[in-house]
Amino acid sequence: MATTTTIEDVPSVELMTELLRRAKCSSKPDKRIILVGPPGSGKGTQSPLIKDEYCLCHLATGDMLRAAVAAKTPLGIKAKEAMDKGELVSDDLVVGIIDEAMKKPSCQKGFILDGFPRTVVQAQKLDEMLAKQGAKVDKVLNFAIDDAILEERITGRLIHPSSGRSYHTKFAPPKTPGVDDVSGEPLIQRKDDTSEVLKSRLEAFHIQTEPVIDYYSKNGLVANLHAEKPPKEVTAEVQKALS
Predict the structure, then answer these.
(1) Among 32, 197, 152, which Cα is nearest to 102's?
(2) For the segment 114-170, what is each residue's pLDDT rounded down to a tens digit?
(3) How far apart are CA 138 and CA 154, in angstroms?
(4) What distance in Å separates the CA atoms of residue 52 and residue 55, rounded to the nearest whole number?
(5) pLDDT computed for residue 4 by the predictor
(6) Catalytic-role residue among 66, 165, 201, 229
(7) Most buried of the four, 10, 69, 86, 176, by CB within 10 Å?
């Protein structure tokens, strides 16, 4: 038999936390934010902070596609067909999945979009979809960073595979080079973290996504962040850009 949860069953701490969250969120302005930046520019560090501060939902298109496929939604089924054939999922499908996700209660105050739009056509489709709802993009945060700094950041990363502990040859080295501090096991460099892979990812980013920054700049929506700074300073820049 299915059990239904009544409000009495919810621990009072959880209820209070949720009520306080709603009270805090009710006074927050709606915001629709896009994060743009190359791999390793710090988007992943800043997005949870922005999400909590402004009560937004975080829409990472890769995760949303996987979730739609797993849930076998009509759009998810279409997406799976494309993926099975080794094709790219069409822009309209991705915009449709974003549209669906935005109806969730957690997206009431707006969203942070990460990993989309990657092309100007996608940006235009997103604008059209939002316009139908009487909404628009409020701010585009551009995590601007020099390729050379990124290369140093990413190619220096070392991972302990079984625990996920991460190190950096320059910024956070292990006590013994190449060895995990806790277990003494060897550290590895992820396949994606080599300079060859990074170069091709950066090239794709510059060719496809820089025009997106220009597209939004024309509407005065872009805030350029100094993404090479320490995370706390970048957070301060983000808060200033969104205030």
Answers:
(1) 32
(2) 889 989 999 999 999 999 989 999 999 999 999 999 999 889 999 998 888 889 999
(3) 30
(4) 5
(5) 64
(6) 201
(7) 69
β-pairing verdict for 157-159 and 31-36: unpaired
The tokens of 82 are what? 């494309």
What's the confidence (pLDDT) of residue 1? Answer: 55
Per-residue pLDDT tens digits for 54-65: 999 999 887 888
Known active-site residue 32? no
Catalytic residue list contains 165:
no
Q: How far apart are CA 203 and CA 39, in angstroms?
A: 11
Domains defined along the chain, listed by start: 30-242 (3.40.50.300)
Q: Which two tokens stand for residue 233?
A: 């300073």
* Omega before residue 117 within 30° of 0, cis: yes
Q: Which of 32, 43, 78, 153 is catalytic?
A: 43
Q: Which of 31, 32, 78, 157 is catalytic?
A: 157
